[in-house]
Design brief:
homotrimer; mainly alpha; 3 strands; 67% helix; cell membrane (chains A, B, C); NH4_transpt_AmtB-like_dom (chains A, B, C); membrane (chains A, B, C)
Chain lengths: 480, 480, 480
């Protein structure tokens, strides 16, 4: 197959997908989605009946965290993917597109499983549903990280449609059927999302990707842009892991645990990055990514009594493992396993996600009434209703089972969706057009020589001198 | 008139305006402004008297939203205007200046109309006043969008002084006299602000603006900077529309409605942008701006029972209309109507604002006790005091009247202020100096050959040696 | 000493410091740190006992402010230091590293002084401790501002270790022993941090720093990056100053005071910046820094009844003094006092911090029952326990004493730590390697001509044609 002949024209497919799916959303929302009792105008009467004050509306417990999570999804993930020298538009722009579609589809999918009011067959949404929709989208954005620069926006929309669907089923099995706890989604979001993306990347393997290797790196300012993403993810991760925890001590503890885990990760990331480079220089890729691994790993156990020193230990290990992953594993995976992972999500989400799942299982299994208090134990692990007879050790087993389900859904789902995305109808780029914004964006104006000239022009009297020196310079650099 | 002769020296006028007006603010604040009962030290006694807990201080209901709105005003609007290749300083810097002045003047103007304590003649301010001041400033920042790159900072200060004054009067008429509801300010902020700016731009029409057309575009990284503005506006718009809604379900519902509206807008913006370009490529201008139109249009009806599917429909339409506006209307307005609209605020604020006003009127007119509950209806539409006999249908009429008032104030005020700004005393730039930071900023160092030269220059005294040393350096680095 | 021979290899020292200190943190956290009663799983029982609702958990009073402060520390301080053309990685990256280490050490140091539970010898942490840890780190980040570009990451780690230690002792003396109030840390954070950094800079004076003067400036886009830092600091400063104030009116008033102070500062900064430049052009350095001086000065008196007009006056003065400092004082200090202050922290933190301390002393001394109410006075100044007999005038004296302590600790501590940092073992850069990311970062890829060439290369097969076409293009664009 001559890649040169690939057709990246998405002028019909992209508008069609956007308009048709958005119309479908309108119809499905019309049929199914209504406000829940805390966001409905009847709440004034309702709260008097329950003898609540306005401030006890769930909105005030969760809205600040929601906005932080929202920033992580759109600015955090978006800007983290601007690091390539010529794919910043695609990184932040397509992230924006698929997240905006994904949250709508997630409200429906998660609603059917978790928020369906059986009295009238409607899904009732409130602030917690918005947070969960953002979480659900995060799985797909993680998957995008492995495919960054190699797929078309239409492929990304398809990836999101199936990703959200798989996520909702997987989440229902893990949280509701298996009764695993996963407040920050180490298993449900990160493990699933990362293996979903890696499997798709394996299915879409491009043996000739080196043809666009000239664009597969960063420049100075694109690295600084990526730091915006890194820092907003890093700073708001405590909100991510605490956003849907229990009111009160649950949210409080989850924020503290995540904060500590992340702090510890930064130091070991710097240590390993420096240790493996000549002269101990730091690598921006590690600082941008591995520093976040602690937040991923703190997800499942965030609301447990992980203890402050426990958090630091988890963060310590994640920083080491994730950075080593970038140094040794990513090249190995590309060469031997034929998995091309643009952003290194295996190091940032997959491995730390699995670690998080294991930490969650161990912490749950070792929970005791002494540490949690009786009510605290029931409250934290939700040993109520049909699960009222569960004990910590069995909970630990259920956590481990949850991790396996996440892995299976990620890998299995990724292979199936990858097969679909291989169809030659989605407008994906040729091997030498990858990582290039010109493929899908109009009028990409790189800071160029022409503008340079028009400026110099003002200061110097001799145009030919200017051009000549410039010419010489370019000739030399060509010969390098 | 030979534009070349325009004097852009603002060394007297800018410091004079800043110092004199700031001094006036100090005097007026001294005479008029005090803390309200929730921010005064007497509150400790006060709350015991009312049997409230600390958490029921209005601060905790509104502060998270306030900070989000604050980010929208300074980072959102500021960075959205950095998209021009050589006017990023002016975009974010002058935005900063006029917003900082505007919030002070707004506290006074809005205070006289809304927060005056008649017992002592003082304006009592709390967190809600700060939010309203930010809202008030938003109107002027929107107007700045039409004028970006074509006016001096002194003109912007004048625009803000009059803009805030007009805003406060218009707002008082619409909200208090007419009793229209406008939580997110589709009419009061966006329609007014946009037509105010467009009218001024019409009055300041520059027939020879093409002389600086070389600078009237973006470069790669300035577009990425603008995406910071876009995303912070997009993410925090739910806070904007819910910030001053009723405690409890009002704020909760407004946030959900805006979130859904915005999600839907992104998809139709992408669809239309792709449909009208060769090969279906996306245009960054549309992604940066039209994706926000849904937030504007959700403003008036944000706290009404617009229903989730209703929000998606509003967003759908706004994405389509706003993007089509950028493609067809902006060039038409510039050519035929002599309105030069740098940021396309007609597409982002004016049209969606009017749509928002209409949606608000229709939603209000069709409100029913069935949907809202009796108390909910009274609460949502504030049918109390002298308006206790109003019904939804009359409310709908009042909403429509409010929209007309906003339009009249915007267009009328803009023409008058535009006439004032045409006086040749404000230091505005010549036609071929527009969109250029060098006009008002010291020492603008573009990443270029010149800076390279000025660097090398330090090492050698001779210009030819300069080129030679550069050549040598490169030759050496080649041979390394 | 021949600077050329300096060894900037940190391949052993940096990993060693990171790993050993992080391990020490784990051990110390294991021995000392536990959850406090509001973040412990026992809280469910605890709150029922106290008859509290979940929303009265301190988490909900402070978490939104905490996240804002967190953004200031990592994005605000980090990006403010990206302004140098070639030291953006170092600015934002090393800021990240030392803040992540500092918050852990601060939790311990501050914990021993303020949160030690004497019943079991453990430090009990909650959300307020996290905020205080961020505050504590701010002092060290301010100090980094004076040293930006001239020190190695290992030196920064040492600076942070000692800085946090000194901070905790100084804070204990000022707040607990002297009983000064300092909600926003004008004295404790800014005065201390700035003089600590300036003293270190004086000890590390580099007479030949001009050798890297080519890099000691900004480029266009690095200035825009720095504006991200400026704006996030400016916007969230009200959260900084109110974060640990009393619940209710205290936090409310502190936010309002800071907001007003900052607004006023912007106008006078612009005025002075314009007044002292040819043609009244603005200087980005002033806009980036001096606009923040009002927030620093509002720190101590933030929760006092400073009155809105009082805030505007403080802001007015700070804008003037800070900008004049950049114009006159910074060059003077470098030449005469041998203090090289890269970011001008003397103008942004030191002088405004001292002003803030004085404003706090005056405001406290002039407090009256009439203005505060009896309970309000006791509540605001914490005239309880062994300080129950204090009156405002004595409180004013104590405030002034606090300021002196902060100055002494800053200058004295800085001289001692500076002496330690002069040891030739820390891998600091040579004089002509300062302000250059290539010293400590791998693979720094400046946007350059070479990448342009590699692109053009694709269009033409012949190297000389390539250069020729480029030459032609440049010639044509010149003639346009």
């Amino acid at each position: 197959m001559c890649d040169r002949e690939k057709d990246t024209n998405v002028r019909l497919s992209l508008p069609a997908v956007c308009v048709v799916w958005q119309t479908a959303m309108i119809i499905l929302f019309g049929v199914f989605i209504r406000y829940d009792h805390e966001s409905d105008a009847h709440w004034v009467e309702h709260r008097k009946h329950l003898n609540l004050t306005d401030i006890e509306n769930d909105f005030y417990f969760r809205y600040p965290s929601f906005q932080d999570v929202h920033v992580m999804i759109f600015v955090g993930f978006g800007f983290l993917m601007t690091f390539l020298k010529r794919y910043s538009f695609g990184g932040v722009g397509f992230n924006f597109l698929i997240a905006a579609f994904g949250i709508q589809w997630a409200l429906l999918m998660q609603g059917w499983f978790h928020s369906l009011d059986y009295t009238d067959g409607k899904i009732k949404i409130g602030i917690e549903n918005l947070i969960n929709a953002d979480f659900c989208v995060a799985g797909c954005l993680i998957a995008y990280g492995a495919l960054l620069g190699k797929v078309s926006p239409v492929q990304l929309m398809v990836l999101t449609l199936f990703g959200i669907t798989l996520f909702a089923v997987e989440e229902f099995i893990i949280l509701s059927l298996i009764h695993a706890r996963d407040a920050g989604g180490s298993m449900v979001i990160h493990t699933f999302g990362a293996y979903y993306g890696l499997s798709i990347s394996w299915m879409l393997y491009r043996p000739n990707l080196h043809q666009s290797s000239r664009l597969q790196g960063s420049v100075y300012h694109s690295d600084v842009f990526a730091m915006i993403g890194t820092l907003f993810l890093w700073m708001f991760w405590p909100s991510f892991n605490s956003a849907i925890c229990d009111h009160g001590d649950g949210q409080h503890r989850a924020a503290i645990n995540t904060y500590l885990c992340l702090a510890s990760t930064v130091l070991t990331t710097v240590a390993i990055s420096s240790l493996f480079q000549k002269h101990g220089k730091l690598d921006m890729v590690h600082i941008q990514n591995s520093t976040l691994a602690g937040g991923v790993a703190a997800g499942t156990a965030a609301e447990f009594m992980l203890m402050p020193y426990g958090c630091l230990i988890v963060g310590f290990c994640c920083g080491v493992i994730s950075t080593l992953g970038y140094i040794f594993l990513t090249p190995f995976m590309e060469k031997r396993l034929k998995i091309q992972d643009t952003c290194g999500i295996h190091n940032l989400h997959a491995m730390p996600g699995v670690i998080g799942g294991i930490v969650g299982a161990v912490t749950a299994a070792s929970a005791s009434v002494e540490v949690y208090g009786h009510e605290g134990l029931v409250n934290t692990f939700d040993f109520e209703g049909k699960f009222k007879d569960m004990v910590p050790t069995t909970q630990g087993g259920h956590q481990a089972a949850g991790l396996c389900v996440a892995l299976c859904f990620g890998i299995g789902g990724g292979i199936i969706v990858g097969a679909i995305l291989r169809l030659p109808i989605w407008g994906d780029p040729a091997d030498d057009d990858c990582f290039d914004d010109e493929t899908y964006w109009e009028d990409v104006r790189i800071c160029n020589v022409k503008s340079e000239v028009s400026r110099l022009d003002l200061n110097g009297p001799l145009p030919c001198f200017l051009s000549f020196s410039h010419w010489t310079k370019m000739f030399i650099s060509y010969n390098q």
